[in-house]
Write a structure and sequence with these properties.
Beta-galactosidase, Chain A, domain 5; single chain; about 290 residues; 14-stranded antiparallel sheet; about 0% helix
Length: about 290
């Protein structure tokens, strides 16, 4: 359903849930609310980096200096961080282009992004299917290799969550990457059993920008001051979680993704990228359900 005030936006509703999509701005989510309570950060500026959530296709996070070897050739991708001199290529290409609206209903929509071969030497088609029901949001991402050669592939979502002083994150993983100042992984710290790396403390007590591996179960964000919590249930093929908790900020990011940072250059380490044969599709889902703090 088109938003009457801003016709390029798509507004979906089901029960108390409201979802506003901005296909033009990287196929992003502009709002995701339960009643008058924001679940994602509402879009707060002109960039896709100011949105509530954007898709990660055909890879997640950083590729070191945008360079990797594939099928006997060296692929070089240009840096793509807006307004900065960040040396690494981030988050794929879907977040920096408009998406076509393939379907648009009262409680669901499908967005589509076709990418021709270029500096990324493979053509692909990506789709987002977003469906609200009375219990929550199902966000399905798919990526099909539309080229005639095998293609490295990854998927994920990049939501921003509002952060209060007491906001807690419960996410159990058995590995945390130690990273360099530029965000590239250095050493994987593993434990025998998945643990909550925050140990129940507010999310702002740790300032990190890294990826966690071996997730066990669902992820829960709790806002005690609001009496609200959000359960995030990624599909099993999104086993990693990128977490960004900048110091002194009013937001944080929890990103279910399919592979580790710079996995294309580290094929022998945990959580590699998948290689899709011509015509093959990778699909993943994230389910969000909100309610009172239990």
């Amino acid at each position: 359903m088109r938003n009457s005030d801003h016709p390029w936006l798509i507004e979906l509703r089901a029960g108390a849930y409201r979802l506003v999509l901005d296909p033009v701005r990287g196929g992003s989510v502009a709002r995701f609310d339960l009643g008058d309570q924001p679940l994602f950060r509402a879009t707060c500026g002109p960039s896709v980096l100011d949105s509530g959530c954007f898709p990660l296709v055909p890879f997640s996070n950083r590729i070191a200096h945008g360079t990797f070897a594939a099928a006997g050739q060296t692929v070089r991708l240009a840096p793509n961080m807006p307004g900065g001199a960040h040396p690494h290529t981030l988050h794929g290409f879907g977040w920096q282009c408009g998406w076509d609206v393939a379907a648009d209903g009262a409680d669901n929509a499908t967005l589509r992004h076709d990418h021709a071969a270029g500096q990324w030497p493979w053509a692909y088609r990506a789709e987002q299917r977003l469906a609200l029901d009375h219990a929550g949001l199902t966000h399905t991402l798919s990526l099909r290799n539309a080229s005639d050669q095998p293609m490295p592939a990854g998927l994920g979502v990049h939501p921003y969550f509002p952060r209060t002083p007491q906001t807690r994150l419960i996410a159990r993983h058995n590995g945390e990457w130690q990273t360099a100042a530029d965000g590239l992984p250095i050493t994987l710290h593993r434990v025998d059993q998945p643990v909550d790396w925050w140990q129940g403390q507010p999310v702002g007590t740790r300032a990190v920008d890294t990826v966690y591996t071996g997730r066990a179960g669902e992820i829960t964000v709790i806002w005690p001051e609001r009496g609200l919590q959000l359960t995030i249930a990624p599909s099993p093929n999104l086993p990693c979680t990128v977490i960004y908790t900048p110091a002194n900020a009013d937001f944080f990011c929890v990103e279910p993704v399919s592979h580790a940072t710079d996995a294309i250059n580290r094929p022998d380490q945990a959580d590699p990228m998948q290689w899709l044969t011509p015509g093959e599709t990778l699909e993943a889902t994230v389910r969000y359900c909100a309610g009172p703090v239990s």
